[in-house]
Amino acid sequence: MAKKKTNTAVSKKKVSKAPKTEGTETETKKPKRKKIKNKVYEKELARLQIELVKLQQWIIHRKLRVVVIFEGRDAAGKGGAIKRITQSLSPRACPVIALPAPTEREKTQWYFQRYVQHLPAAGEMVLLDRSWYNRGGVERVMGFCSDDEYSEFLRSCPEFERMLVRSGIILIKYWFSVSDEEQERRFQGRIYHPTKHWKLSPMDLQSRSRWQEYSKAKDEMFAHTDIKQAPWYVVDGDVKKRARLNVICHLLSLIPYQDLTPEAIELPPRQEEIGYVRPPLSEQTFVPEIY
Fold first, then answer.
1. Which tens digit of pLDDT belongs to each residue from 275-288?
2. CA angle 98, 102, 105 (to 5 degrees)
């Protein structure tokens, strides 16, 4: 029989809500955060990932529908956080959606239409690696949408999200913040890292040259979309490992869950091979053993 324990692994500390308007990140200097020791990070990450597995089983058991949005500055650590969240979870019940630029046909649709098809069914938690907030950020700054389309987005988005919440969807929104200096350091690292070149796109370079415009767009977007039903939670991303632990811990605190870990399972004995002769291994093609 499955055990049912109320979650006690997540810190009981009250989570303070991010202010509705921060101003630009360059206006207020944040105190420099110390890096976390690898041993501490690995231990806490392993513990929290076990709790994430319990959370996923609870979501499946209770047929919950969860949407988690990850937005923020380029190189702020969204992808790394998503990777650690999903590392031990079933991809069938926790898909990651990262949509490319809209096609010509999609550009003629209702703006939210291509996102709606990725909303979760019962028992699913969908992670959006960037979302409908593209219109409030990159599309606004780069001129990919008209002023009328942008104004309509600011009017429609809060109502769209309230509608999702009324339908029973748990909507969680994270904004990853990073300082100018730290973003510069990470971009420089991508230039010379052979496996990270693909992360540095022309849009990333534009985000550097238009830092102030992105700050203004973010502040205006927060002023309209930081609603009671689906508030924004800001993640300090200057220290990646701290940010990952903080966002996982916070996510666990937002959805009360119980431990449904089953009792230990005993494997049945394997069927005996009676009267069956397997073909010789020489008839099969094996991967060369280079290592």
1. 888 889 999 999 99
2. 140
Which of 23-37, 52-66, 118-132 bottoms out in mean pLDDT, i.e. has the lowest? 23-37
The DSSP-derived string for the chain is -----B--SS--SPPPPPPS----TTTSPPPPPPPPPHHHHHHHHHHHHHHHHHHHHHHHHHT-EEEEEEEESTTSSHHHHHHHHHTTS-TTTS-EE---SPPHHHHTS-TTHHHHTTS--TTEEEEEES-GGGTTTHHHHHT-S-HHHHHHHHHHHHHHHHHHHHTT-EEEEEEEE--HHHHHHHHHHHHH-TTTGGG--HHHHHHHHTHHHHHHHHHHHHHHH--SSS-EEEEE-SSHHHHHHHHHHHHHHHS--B--PPPPPPPPPPPP--S--PPPGGGSPPPP---
Kindly list the distances between the CA atom of residue 209 and the CA atoms of 40, 136, 142, 288, in Å, as whole numbers in the listed order: 37, 18, 11, 49
Kindly report the pTM of this predicted structure: 0.85
Residues 44-92: pLDDT tens digits?
999 999 999 999 999 999 999 999 999 999 889 999 999 999 999 999 9
- Domains in the chain, start-ordered, CATH in brackets? 38-261 (3.40.50.300)
Measuring CA to CA, which residue among 153, 290, 271, 169 is closest to residue 230?
A: 169
Amino acid occupying residue 272: E
Nearest to 255, CA basis, from 112, 114, 85: 85
